[in-house]
C-alpha cells in the first residue's frame, strides 16, 4: 500500500473537508487511536493477509485492550462511547480493510449487543467483560443457506426436551464462527423466533470456514451446522421475542457500515489523488487533466456527502431518534457510492489499479460483500419504498 494515504492526498481531503470542526475532542481521540492502530498494526500486512486468506487472531486482544470491542455499550467492561465515536472507529478500520471493521461489528454490534440488549444478568456477566477485553470471541448466527434476506423463512429449530432445548439446523455466512467461543443462535420455537447463547464447545455445534471467497479474504465467514445441540433452559435470551430481536442487532451493524464504507472510499480517493499528482502523461501531471479533476471532484463530493450523512445519523442515534428507515438510507447510499468511488479510483490508476501495489481492487472486492450483507441493495431500496408509499413490496 505504498501509495495509499500519502501526506499530500490526506492533506487535500482533510483540508477541503474539515470534519474535525463538527466533532468533539473525545470523538477525535477515538478516531485518531483507531487510525493509528489500523495503519501501524493492520495495514503493513493486509495485502499479504488478503492474498493468503489469513486472519490475524493476535490483534483481537490488542483491540480489546484499546477499548474498541463493544465500545458503544456501557458497563461490563465496555467503554460506553458515543455513536459518532463508534462510527469514526468503523471508518478508520475499513479504510484499511473491510474485514477488520467487520470483526469489530460482528463482535460488538451483533454478538455483544444481543447479549447486552436481551441477555440475562448471568449472560452479561459471563460473556461481556471477556468479549470487551478480547479474551472471548462471539458470533451471530442468523442467516441460513436458503434464507438470505428472508429470515422469517428460518428453518433452524429449537425444541423442548424436558428442561432443555435442542437445536437443529444450519446457518451460512456466519462471521468468526470457527474461532468463536460463544454464538448467539436464532431458531424457530413453538413460541416464535428466539435467541440462544451457545458456547461453541457444546457437542453438535460445528463451524467450517468458507474457503472459496474472492472477497473479505482477510476475515472469517463460516457455514455452521447444529446437530442436536442440547442447551439448558437458561441459554435462551429472555428478552428477545420474534424477529425484532435480531433485527435490532442488525440495525446496530448497519449503522457501523454507513460509516465504515466511507473509510474504504477515502482510502481509494487518497490513492487516486496521490497518483494524479505524481504520475506524468503527455508532459504534464495526470491531475492537470480536466477529466481527471472531474473524476476526483465527483469522488470527493460523494465521500463528503456520505460522511456527513453518517454524522447526521450518528447524532440522531445519540438522541435516541434514529429509525430503521434512516439506517436503510445510509446503508444503501454509502455502500453504493463507495463502490462507485473505488471504480473511479481504479480508472485513474490505469492498469496499475488492478495490482496489489494499491488497495483499490481489494476494497472493490470487499465492498461487494458489504453490499450484500446486513441487507442487500434491493432490500434497503424496498424498505425506503415502503416508507414512502406505505406498501411492503417484498411481502
Summarize the SSE layout with pairings.
Elements (H helix, E strand, L loop, with lengths): L6 H10 L8 H18 L3 H7 L5 H8 L8 E2 L2 E2 L3 H14 L1 H21 L2 H13 L4 E4 L15 E5 L2 E12 L6 E8 L2 E8 L5 E5 L11 E12 L11 H35 L1 E2 L2 E2 L4 H29 L5 H26 L10 H13 L4 H13 L6
Parallel strand pairs: 3-6
Antiparallel strand pairs: 1-2, 4-5, 5-9, 6-7, 8-9, 10-11
Helix pairs in contact: 1-8, 2-5, 5-6, 5-8, 6-7, 6-8, 8-9, 8-10, 8-11, 9-10, 10-11, 10-12
What does this protein structure show overall?
Belongs to the acyl-CoA dehydrogenase family. Keywords: FAD, Flavoprotein, Oxidoreductase, Transit peptide. Its EC number is 1.3.8.6. The structure is a single chain. The chain has 395 residues and is α+β, with helices and mostly antiparallel strands. The protein has three domains: 127 residues, Acyl-CoA dehydrogenase/oxidase, N-terminal domain (Butyryl-Coa Dehydrogenase, subunit A, domain 1); 98 residues, Butyryl-CoA Dehydrogenase, subunit A, domain 2 (Beta Barrel); 146 residues, Up-down Bundle (Butyryl-CoA Dehydrogenase, subunit A, domain 3). Helix content is 52%, strand content 16%. It has twelve helices and eleven strands. The strands form four sheets. The chain has a four-stranded antiparallel β-sheet, covered by helices on one side. α2 runs parallel beside α5 and α8 runs antiparallel to α9. The longest helix has 35 residues. The relative contact order is 0.13.
Main β-sheet description? 4 strands, antiparallel
CATH third-level topology of the largest domain: Butyryl-CoA Dehydrogenase, subunit A, domain 3
Overall structural class, as computed from helix and strand content, comes to alpha+beta
How many H/I helices? 12
Amino acid at each position: 500500500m505504498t501509495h495509499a494515504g500519502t501526506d499530500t492526498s490526506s492533506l487535500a481531503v482533510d483540508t477541503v473537508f474539515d470534519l474535525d470542526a463538527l466533532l468533539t475532542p473525545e470523538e477525535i481521540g477515538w478516531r485518531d487511536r483507531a487510525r493509528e492502530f489500523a495503519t501501524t498494526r493492520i495495514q503493513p500486512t493486509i495485502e499479504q493477509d488478503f492474498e493468503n486468506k489469513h486472519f490475524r487472531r493476535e490483534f483481537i486482544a490488542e483491540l480489546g485492550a484499546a477499548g474498541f470491542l463493544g465500545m458503544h455499550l456501557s458497563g461490563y467492561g465496555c467503554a460506553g462511547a458515543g455513536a459518532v465515536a463508534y462510527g469514526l472507529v468503523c471508518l478508520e478500520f475499513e479504510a484499511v480493510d473491510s474485514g477488520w471493521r467487520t470483526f469489530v461489528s460482528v463482535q460488538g454490534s451483533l454478538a455483544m449487543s444481543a447479549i447486552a440488549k436481551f441477555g440475562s444478568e448471568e449472560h452479561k456477566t459471563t460473556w461481556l467483560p471477556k468479549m470487551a477485553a478480547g479474551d472471548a470471541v462471539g458470533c451471530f448466527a442468523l442467516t441460513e443457506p436458503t434464507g438470505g434476506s428472508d429470515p422469517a423463512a428460518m428453518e433452524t429449530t429449537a425444541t423442548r426436551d424436558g428442561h432443555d432445548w435442542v437445536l437443529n439446523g444450519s446457518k451460512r455466512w456466519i462471521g468468526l464462527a470457527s474461532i468463536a467461543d460463544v454464538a448467539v443462535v436464532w431458531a424457530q420455537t413453538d413460541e416464535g423466533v428466539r435467541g440462544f447463547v451457545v458456547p461453541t464447545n457444546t457437542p453438535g455445534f460445528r463451524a467450517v470456514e468458507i474457503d472459496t471467497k474472492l472477497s473479505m479474504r482477510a476475515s472469517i465467514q463460516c457455514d455452521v451446522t447444529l446437530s442436536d445441540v442440547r442447551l439448558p433452559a437458561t441459554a435462551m435470551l429472555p428478552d428477545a421475542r420474534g424477529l425484532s430481536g435480531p433485527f435490532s442487532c442488525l440495525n446496530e451493524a448497519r449503522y457501523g457500515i454507513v460509516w465504515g464504507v466511507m473509510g474504504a472510499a477515502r482510502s481509494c480517493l487518497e490513492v487516486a489523488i496521490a497518483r494524479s499528482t505524481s504520475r506524468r502523461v503527455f508532459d504534464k501531471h495526470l491531475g492537470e487533466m480536466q477529466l481527471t479533476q472531474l473524476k476526483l471532484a465527483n469522488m470527493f463530493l460523494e465521500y463528503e456527502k456520505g460522511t456527513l450523512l453518517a454524522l447526521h445519523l450518528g447524532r440522531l442515534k445519540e438522541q435516541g431518534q434514529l429509525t430503521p428507515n434512516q439506517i436503510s438510507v445510509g446503508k444503501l447510499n454509502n455502500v453504493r457510492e463507495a463502490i462507485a468511488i473505488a471504480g473511479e479510483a481504479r480508472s485513474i490508476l490505469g492498469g496499475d489499479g488492478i495490482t496489489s501495489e494499491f488497495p483499490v481492487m481489494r476494497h472493490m472486492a470487499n465492498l461487494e460483500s458489504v453490499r450484500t450483507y446486513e441487507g442487500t441493495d434491493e432490500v434497503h431500496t424496498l424498505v425506503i419504498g415502503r416508507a414512502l408509499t406505505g406498501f411492503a413490496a417484498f411481502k
